[in-house]
Amino acid sequence: MTTTLLNADKIRLDGRKLDELRPVKIDVGVIKNADGSALIEFGKNKIIAAVYGPKEVHPRHLTKPDRAIVKCRYHMTPFSTDTRKNPSFSRREIEISKVIRQALEPAIILEDYPRSSIEVYMEVLQSDGGSRCAALSAASVALADAGINMRDLVAGCAAGKIGGEIVLDIDDTEDKEGEADMPTAIMPSLGLVTLFQLDGKLSESEFQKTFEFAIKGCMKVYQIQREALMNKYFGQSEPMQESTE
């Protein structure tokens, strides 16, 4: 039986409009034994990210003489999904770990840390669609909290297509029942895309609109990331800036 994802007024199952982001909250420095950490609540997603390093590379043959190497581990706890997940690493988790590493590397000034490694761990405590973008956003804040030199924060958000309509930030039900999903991440200050994936089929006009939605979502997440870091280190938030796009 197919779930009706939009009502007659184009309101989604959770009460959101087509272009509405789920509530996002980020807490910085939540793990005292890590060099940097962050907890993100992205809708019903709850994800902890922790950063260790720069530190000595193990095994040593992986050392790069002119730059740091980045190691990422994305893992979903057995209780994070509707049905108990096998605690061992799945192929999906290995693939997402690689995707997140590739999305973070352009933001880190790796040449500042030769012959060292920077380790990023992401534990998904509760998953509800869009967890890779949420984990990536939390990891970026954790890197900043660790004092790692970065060109910019990396902000992630997905858009997609459900019930024939383009929507922002799809949740788990929309991901499973919808027609397309486009996880995206950007470095907003530099105008660079570091993650782009597409699952599903879109027309040329739908593709453009979905990408625009994803970018707008990333910009909203970016503002929340900056405010979370400002709250920790300066005890205040930056003034909200209205988008001119």
Describe this structure in words.
By secondary structure, the chain is α+β, with helices and mostly antiparallel strands. The protein has a single domain (24-232), classed as Ribosomal Protein S5, domain 2 (2-Layer Sandwich), CATH 3.30.230. The protein is built from 4 helices and 10 strands. It has helices at 91-104, 131-145, 172-177, 204-234, and strands at 24-28, 36-42, 45-55, 69-76, 117-126, 155-162, 165-168, 180-187, 192-196, 199-200. A hairpin with a 2-residue loop joins strand 6 and strand 7 (165-168). The protein starts with 23 loop residues before the first strand and ends in an 11-residue tail after the last helix. Residues 239-245 have low confidence and may be disordered.
Tell me the total number of β-strands.
10
Largest beta sheet: what is the strand line-up? 1-2-3-5-4
Fourth CATH level, the homologous superfamily: GHMP Kinase, N-terminal domain
Number of domains: 1
Question: What average pLDDT do the residues reach?
Answer: 93
Q: Indicate the overall shape.
A: globular
Poorly predicted ranges (pLDDT <50, ≥5 residues)? 239-245
Please compute the radius of gyration using only Cα atoms: 18 Å
